[in-house]
C-alpha cells in the first residue's frame, strides 16, 4: 500500500470518529427503526443506504421549500431564502470532510465508511430542517418535541449554541418566525436546540 493510500486510510478512520462525535453533539439522531435493516458490516451497503437517505430528505426539503413559495408573500419568501442560505452554510460546515482530508480529496474518493458518516450527517441535518419547514406550514411539531416541550418551560442550554453558524441560522429562523407566525424567540430557540441536540428520528 502506498504512503498516500495509508494516509487516506488513516484519515478515513479519523473522520469516521470525529464526524460521529459531531453528530452526537449536534444531532443525537439514531434512525434506528430504519437503519436496523442495514448490515453495518457491509460498508458499501451502509454508504448506499445513507446516500439514498440524504437524497430522499433533500428532495422532500426542496419540494416543501417550493410549496412555501406559493404560500408566502414575496417579502416573506425573501426572508425565508435568507434563513435557508444560513442553514445551508451550517449544514455544509458541519458535514464538511475537508478539515479531516484536506482539499485533495472529493467525497467520491473517500472510503465507504467515511462517506457513510458524511451522508448520515447530511441526511439528519436535512431532516431537522424539513421538520422546521413543516412547522412553518402547519405549526405542528414532531411528537418527541411536543412531549418534551410540555415538561420543559425554561430555555435549555445546548452545545449547539457554541456553533457560530448554527447560531446565525437559528437567529435568522426565529426572526422570520417572529414576523410570520408571531412566535416568541424563547419557544423558537428551544425547538431549534431540541432538533439539533435531542431529537431521535
TrEMBL record:
What Pfam families does the record tag this protein with?
Answer: LprI
Where in the numbering of this chain does the Lysozyme inhibitor LprI-like N-terminal domain appear? 50-133
Q: Which Gene3D superfamilies match?
A: 1.20.1270.180
Answer whether the UniProt record assigns the keyword Signal to this protein. Answer: yes
Keywords per UniProt: Signal
| Range of residues in the leader sequence | 1-34
This chain belongs to which protein, by name?
Answer: DUF1311 domain-containing protein
State the organism named in the record: Photobacterium arenosum
Amino acid at each position: 500500500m502506498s504512503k498516500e493510500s495509508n494516509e487516506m486510510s488513516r484519515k478515513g478512520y479519523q473522520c469516521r470518529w470525529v464526524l460521529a462525535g459531531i453528530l452526537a453533539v449536534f444531532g443525537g439522531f439514531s434512525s434506528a427503526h430504519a437503519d436496523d435493516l442495514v448490515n453495518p458490516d457491509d460498508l458499501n451497503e451502509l454508504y448506499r443506504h445513507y446516500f439514498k437517505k440524504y437524497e430522499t430528505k433533500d428532495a422532500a426539503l426542496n419540494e416543501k421549500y417550493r410549496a412555501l413559495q406559493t404560500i408566502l408573500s414575496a417579502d416573506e419568501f425573501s426572508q425565508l431564502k435568507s434563513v435557508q442560505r444560513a442553514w445551508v452554510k451550517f449544514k455544509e460546515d458541519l458535514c464538511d470532510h475537508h478539515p479531516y482530508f484536506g482539499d485533495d480529496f472529493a467525497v467520491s474518493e473517500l472510503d465507504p465508511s467515511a462517506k457513510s458518516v458524511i451522508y448520515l450527517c447530511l441526511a439528519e441535518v436535512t431532516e431537522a430542517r424539513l421538520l422546521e419547514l413543516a412547522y412553518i406550514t402547519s405549526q405542528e411539531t414532531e411528537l418527541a418535541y411536543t412531549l418534551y416541550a410540555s415538561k420543559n418551560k425554561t430555555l435549555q442550554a445546548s452545545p449547539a449554541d457554541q456553533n457560530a453558524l448554527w447560531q446565525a441560522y437559528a437567529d435568522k429562523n426565529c426572526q422570520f418566525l417572529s414576523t410570520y407566525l408571531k412566535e416568541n424567540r424563547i419557544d423558537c430557540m428551544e425547538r431549534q436546540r431540541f432538533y439539533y441536540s435531542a431529537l431521535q428520528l
